[in-house]
Amino acid sequence: MKINVSRDSIHDQLVATYQSLEASLLNTALLESGISDAAQREKVISSFLFAQGVVLDQSWFEEQGARWYPGVYFSNMPHENLEAATVHLPSEQYGMNFHEYAQGAATWAIENQENPKAIEVGNAHE
Description:
By secondary structure, this protein is mainly alpha-helical. It has one domain (4-111). The protein is 46% helix and 11% strand. The strands form two sheets. Strands 1-5-4 form a three-stranded mixed beta sheet. It has a two-stranded antiparallel sheet with strand order 2-3. Helix 1 (10-32) packs across helix 3 and helix 2 (38-58) packs antiparallel against helix 3.
């Protein structure tokens, strides 16, 4: 199977949107867990996303005696159709910037918590 791979700048834009979506999901979970203070939620979201971002942007972990470097890709097709998709990997120019975007995503989630359609999301199997 040959997959069409892209390493252009769209990946960086998708990182920002995806991380904002994650921030929104975490904000909702914190609200549902009884954390009503917006400043506290923003601090937790920012802290988590920054730490997660460092892992994604700069870290490796060991499994089965090998080093693995986590990353995030984006595709224009569902996972089961990757052979027909374009898979977008981090661009050489921008890399991955999850840790750098963490605070902005946290702030965005708090500011947009009343707008559930701020990022349109759907089910790949619908």
